[in-house]
Structures are given as structure tokens and as C-alpha cells.
Amino acid sequence: MSDCLFCKIISGEIPSAKVYEDENVFAFRDIAPQAPTHILVVPREHIESVADLNADNSALAARCLEAAAVIARQEGLRGGFRVVSNCGDDAGQTVKHLHFHILGGERLGDRMA
């Protein structure tokens, strides 16, 4: 999608602090981290959100979660980490490209927000 921020990051049009990439997934550090480790994991294919997953594209979400496990190990998140995907405006999704936040590096609070 030509006007999507994450599509522009994936294509290299907008720079990012890349931490992982493969043929299906791209991951980079969040520019406004909410934890000591805050990484965004996105599919290379544009999918708007979890609400848009279906039998034809859900394997990409699984690939993102597999990548999240690899990234968490690379980042040394041995004590645990959180994976979050905001879906829609009411959930706080600000970029309409499916993405998963990896949050860790400290003991996270019990609240999800």
C-alpha cells in the first residue's frame, strides 16, 4: 500500500532500526518504546489488522509470531515478554498494517494498557 508507514519502512523508503527480516517478516525497534525492549514485527504483505486475517493470509500472522520467538531469544528476554496486537481504532491501532509489539526487558505490569 503506497501510503502505509510500515510498507514504506519495509521497502526501505523510511529508515528503521531493523532487528530481523526474512522473506515474510520484517521487525524493527519502536521509535516510542513502552518498555526497555519494544520491537514491532510486521508481515511484508499489507494486511490491515487481525480482523482481516483469513484462511488465505493467516499463515503470515503465524510467521510473525514464530519470528517474535526468535527475536525474543536474540534480545535475551529470558524472564518473559509480552506480544500485543492492537486491532482497530478503539484498541489504539495507529498504523493500519498488521503488527505485533514485543515488549520486555523488565517486569511488566499486570495491566495490558
Key traits:
single chain, 113 residues, alpha+beta, HIT family, subunit A, 2 helices
In sequence order, what are the helices and strands, one letter per element? Answer: HEEEHEE
Estimated share of beta-strand residues: 15-25%
Question: What's the CATH architecture name?
Answer: 2-Layer Sandwich
Under CATH, the homologous superfamily reads HIT-like
Q: Helix/strand-derived class?
A: alpha+beta
For the biggest β-sheet, the strand order reads: 1-2-3-5-4
Mean of pLDDT: 95
Q: Give the class-level CATH name.
A: Alpha Beta
The geometry reads as globular
> Biggest sheet, open or closed, and with what strands and sense?
5 strands, antiparallel
Cα gyration radius (Å): 13 Å
For the terminal residues, how far apart are their CA atoms? 29 Å
Residue share in helices? 10-25%
Low-confidence region ranges = none
The number of helical segments is 2
Provide an overview of this structure.
The chain is an alpha+beta fold. The protein has one domain: HIT family, subunit A (2-Layer Sandwich), CATH 3.30.428. Helix content is 21%, strand content 22%. The chain has a five-stranded antiparallel β-sheet, covered by helices on one side. The longest helix is centred in the middle third of the chain and has 17 residues, at 58-74. 22% of the residues are buried. The mean pLDDT is 95.
In brief:
The protein is α+β, with helices and mostly antiparallel strands and 113 residues long.
What is the topology?
Elements: H1 5-11, E1 18-21, E2 25-29, E3 37-43, H2 58-74, E4 81-84, E5 100-104
Antiparallel strand pairs: 1-2, 2-3, 3-5, 4-5
